[in-house]
Every structure is written in structure tokens, then in C-alpha cells.
Structure prediction request, 405 residues.
Amino acid sequence: MTLGRRLLLPIAASGALIVAWVVWGWLPGDPAADTRYAVAGVVGIGIVGLLGVAKLAFHLAVRRPLAALGAANGPGDEIERLAQHVRALEHRLAQRDADVEQALRQCQEAKSSLQLAEERYVLAVRNASDGLWEWDLKTGAMYLSPRWKSMLGFAEGEIPDTREVWVERLHPEDRARAEEALENHIRGASPRYQDEHRLLHKDGGVRWVLSRGAAIRRASGSAYRVVGLDTDVTRIRHVESILHEIVEGTSGAFGDMLFRSMVQHFARALHVERAFITECCDQPPTRVRTLAHWSGRDFANNFEYELPGSPCERVMEGRTCFYPRDVGVLFPRERSWEAYLGVPIFGSDGRVIGHLAFLDRREMPEDVVVDAVFRIFAARAGAELERMRALEELRRLTMPAGISG
Prediction:
């Protein structure tokens, strides 16, 4: 049943009751009662009229708009169609709520992942041996990590995080080149920033670093931030300088000339005062003789000496011995010296047949010991010493009887 018919029912019922009342009032009886029934009839008719007007108003104000609302779906109950529309809206709202909840959950997961990534980044930077620096191109602010500062001998709060400090720490001879390489990368002229230069250490020395970085750019390609890492390559540079010095000095040298070149250029490369190379006089070694001896600024005379009581005795056991300080205290025979470094020379049979030794009146730095370099040239010295011995033995065997060398 439609809404209009439901509203018509009370109107029809009221009309029927009024008609019955009026008819009953017209039956013969008391005149006063007749008058009351007549008034009641008029009132009833008025009520019926008001109900009719109310129905008409409802039709115009409610039913017609609802009919227009449901016209697209064909005839039917307007309230039902309205209820369906409300349910559809509720369903859409519930779906939106579910979407928002899922978006919030994904946002929380992304936030957790970002936090984890940041923690890993901080941990990696903290434990890395490289020094991190970041430069904000818009504000000019620069961050220098604690590791970067410690590479140069500074505590974290000892120098500020500014670009001025970064520039000041660049060696004057390398500053222009390093800044030019960085500016070229920021402009986009190079795919990455890379430069090897010196940084000034707090102790007055220098540290060689391999500086690498990358600019973070906007979609337009303009850079707004640069992140870089400085790797300390001082030891590598030190090894390179030693190799260059000795290779250049000993290239093409043989025999006594090779030994003289080795001690001379080793002394210069290591910045030590005294260097010599020896061969064993007996086996097992108790006594050695020098094959070449560099002292101060020139070659000195060769000599023989006993191993007991000297730091060289331990070298003859087949291992490198390094005393960066107090060698004169440990070995009174060497009281004039502060530091000692000895490297064994092995023969082809694995026995120690000599050694390289270095002495200095100053303390030797820890990075002076570069085993790979020493082993290379000690092996060459061992091969040359065996070659010379073989030639000497051949000369002795082929020499006519009665003729001495």
C-alpha cells in the first residue's frame, strides 16, 4: 500500500464516524441534543476538510519530490527507495572508513620501515671507518660527522659543523681542485663527485682522503643537497710513496749496486737515519756482515757483528721485529737509538740468510711497517744474494788449482 493510501485511511474513517454521528443526531429526540449534534457535525466536517488539506500539502511537499527522486528507478514506494539510497550511502561510508583505516595502517607500516631504515643508516654511519659530511645547498648548513672529525684528531664538539671548517681543513695546495670538482658535480658536469686530496690534521700533519659524494636533485635536475664520504687513504699513499721511491731507485740494479740502492732509498722513503742489509756468516745464524750500509746522508763502511744482545737476533728467527720506541732501553747495545725495524731475508730453502734493518733516533710511526712492501724487496734481495753466492761458488770451482781470488 502506498503512502498516500495510508494517509487517506484516517480521513475516510473520520468522515464515516461524523456522517454516522450526524445521521444519529437527526433522529427525532431532544431539540437541545439536535443542536449539539448539528454543531458536532459542522466541526467534524471541518476536521475532515483539514485532513484533506493536510493530505494535499503532504502530496505537494513530500510525495511529489519523492516521486521525482525515484522516477529514474520506476514506480515503487518512495520511502523504500529513500531507504535503499540511505543504505547505499551507509555502505559507501563504511567502505570509505575501511579505506581510511587501511591507509592509516599502511602509513604506520611505512613509518616503521622508515624508522628502521634510519636506525640502520645511523648505525652504519656510526660504525663506518669513513667520515660522513652533508651540505644543504639552500641554507648553506653543513654536517660533519664525529668520525670525520676524529679522522683529523678532533673531538665531536671541538670544531663546529660548518662549511668554513670543511674548507679550512683542505690542504691549501689541494683546495682549489677539490672545490672545483665538487662544483662541477653540483652543476651536473660530472655524474659523481670524487677527488683525492689532503686534509690538515690537528697535530699539524696531513691525512690523505678519497672523497666521494653525490648530489640529491629535484625533478628539474637542480641539486639541493650533497652527501659525501671521506675515506682515509694515508696508508695507501704511504705504501705508494715507498714503492715509487724504491722501484725508481733499484730499477736495473744488480749485485752490490742493488743492495746499496735498497738501503739508500728505503732510508729516504721511511725517513729513517740508518739502514743496512746483511747476510748470515753461519747457520744457524749467530753472526752477520753488512752488504750495504746507509748512515745519515751517505754510505758507511761495512762491518760484522754478533747477533746475541741485539734486536737483530730475533729477526733471524724468521719474523719482522718492530720497536717504535725505547729500543735502547730494551737492548743496551743500541742505546744511541730510539726505534728499530728488522725484516728477515729468506733463501729458496726457507732458511733465513740475512735481513734488512732500520734504526732512527726518533720514534717511528706505527704505519711504517708495510709487510707486503718489505716482503717484496726482501725476496728480491734474497734472490740476488743467492745468485751472487752461486756465481762465487761457480768461480771458485772453475778457478785453476793454485790460483786464489
Remarks:
- The first strand starts at residue 131 and ends at 136.
